[in-house]
Design a protein that fits this description.
Distance between the termini: 93 Å
CATH architecture of the largest domain: 2-Layer Sandwich
Number of strands: 10
Order of helices and strands: EHEHEHEEEEEHEEHHHHHHHHHHHHHHHH
Structural class: alpha+beta
Strand content: 5-15%
Radius of gyration: 28 Å
Strand order of the largest sheet: 1-10-9-2-3-6-5-4
Oligomer: single chain
Length: 422
């Protein structure tokens, strides 16, 4: 095996995980080697949270499968044509992929040949920061200058950017997404020029894959500047199919870190709505164009609708927040407040205060239900719904203050009148 040009050492809890050591002990036999590769190494170097831990090995897929089974682990052939076996160790899944070389590319998928050369495997990957390997002793093996690029915040293609994009057009979007997440300063000039030159190739990608990359992009820390660069390059409109509100998108991101504000974890829907949904119809168009989940559609549509109806100037009052929480729930309230600020319907100070209150105040819950009315002697039917709606309106209009006993007393009096007049 060729030695890496540079080496450094990292320490991480996941490197000491006994399950990972069991996996390596099963694979590393008869001259075969295994390293952890990709995101786990990159994120550890950058002191970012680590998600999946992926493994690369010189062992062939059939050998990995046999050795894992013999060691009492569970191998699953999840991507066997491309050399990937998922090995489950004590309930934890690791993707194990044989070293390979792309023999022929097809614009999205490639015909591969398995090999044993770590440098060759590194050079067929997309970005330098994704082609880093580490052994269990913490030594990082870098064949492409990925360590330096990680530390400098450079998202750089391995080899010629244009050639790498021709191999897989999805790399256009990955280039921007990775820069938004890990880059600092301007985009890599060669990568940007290659992405612009190849932008017509986006039309050949599946809507689902474009949607997945877009949802990851819009939550990244550097998304506002990166999305603006995509717009300047004529790429953003091709992705979302409409004009973008770059200022509103930046305002939404400016609320990250506020007490009760949006997070980069699960709020992609509201960030996407801030970028390109002025109406419920826009939200539906984005959902269809990007093949997003039904849950994302519902969040965008609700946020757009509610943001327009929020009481401007009195948004941060307890009454306004309680009503919003009652109607939308905690997540829906946050989405509506973020989008109201994105659309410049409310100022940052007012929205920040409202977000904090929406995060801390209890969500009001109507203390009676239809079954309570039936228990008072009211026959089930239309009258139950009507009286319950009246009590709900009374409860809201009086600031959610009438308690269960008061509401039941009001209901009992109304029910008595109905029964007397029957």
């Amino acid at each position: 095996m060729r030695r890496a040009a540079t080496e450094t050492r990292i320490a991480a809890d996941w490197l000491a995980d006994p399950r990972l050591h069991r996996l390596f002990a099963a694979i590393e036999r008869d001259g075969d080697t295994a390293y952890v590769v990709g995101g786990a190494v990159r994120n550890t170097l950058l002191e970012r949270p680590v998600g999946d831990v992926d493994v690369a090995t010189t062992a062939l897929p059939a050998v990995v499968t046999a050795r894992a089974a013999a060691a009492g682990l569970k191998p699953v052939p999840t991507g066997i044509d491309h050399g990937t076996v998922t090995v489950v160790v004590e309930g934890h899944a690791y993707e194990v992929t044989t070293l390979r070389q792309d023999v022929e590319s097809h614009g999205r998928h490639a015909t591969v040949a398995f090999g044993r050369d770590w440098s060759v495997d590194a050079h067929r990957r997309d970005f330098t920061m994704n082609a880093l390997y580490v052994s269990l002793d913490g030594v990082v093996h870098d064949f492409v200058g990925g360590i330096a690029d990680c530390r400098a915040g450079r998202v750089r293609f391995i080899g010629r950017a244009a050639a790498r994009i021709r191999e897989d057009r999805l790399r256009i979007l990955r280039f921007f997404r990775f820069h938004a997440a890990y880059g600092r300063g301007a985009l890599d000039p060669e990568g940007l020029a290659a992405a612009i030159a190849a932008r017509d190739g986006l039309a050949g990608l599946s809507a689902e894959r474009i949607g997945q990359e877009t949802m990851k992009l819009v939550v990244a820390e550097g998304a506002p500047a990166t999305v603006a660069a995509m717009s300047d390059a004529g790429l953003l409109q091709r992705v979302i199919g409409r004009a973008a509100d770059l200022g509103g998108f930046a305002r939404a991101h400016g609320l990250v870190g506020c007490d009760g504000g949006p997070t980069r974890d699960g709020d992609a829907a509201v960030f996407l709505a801030a970028l390109a949904a002025w109406s419920e119809a826009d939200a539906l168009d984005l959902w269809q164009r990007l093949r997003l989940s039904n849950a994302t559609r519902e969040r965008m549509v609700a946020a757009v609708g509610r943001a327009r109806t929020l009481p401007q100037g009195t948004l941060a009052t307890a009454a306004a927040i309680d009503r919003l929480l009652f109607e939308a729930g905690r997540e829906g309230a946050r989405d509506a407040l973020v989008l109201a600020h994105a659309r410049a319907l409310a100022g940052r100070e007012e929205v920040s205060t409202a977000l904090s209150q929406a995060a801390s105040r209890p969500v009001p819950v109507l203390p009676i239900a239809g079954r309570d009315l039936v228990s008072l002697g009211l026959p089930s039917g239309a009258a139950v719904g009507r009286i319950l709606a009246d009590l709900r309106a009374l409860w809201i209009n009086q600031g959610f203050r009438p308690d269960r006993a008061s509401l039941l007393a009001s209901a009992e009096a109304e029910i008595a009148g109905i029964l007397t007049n029957r």
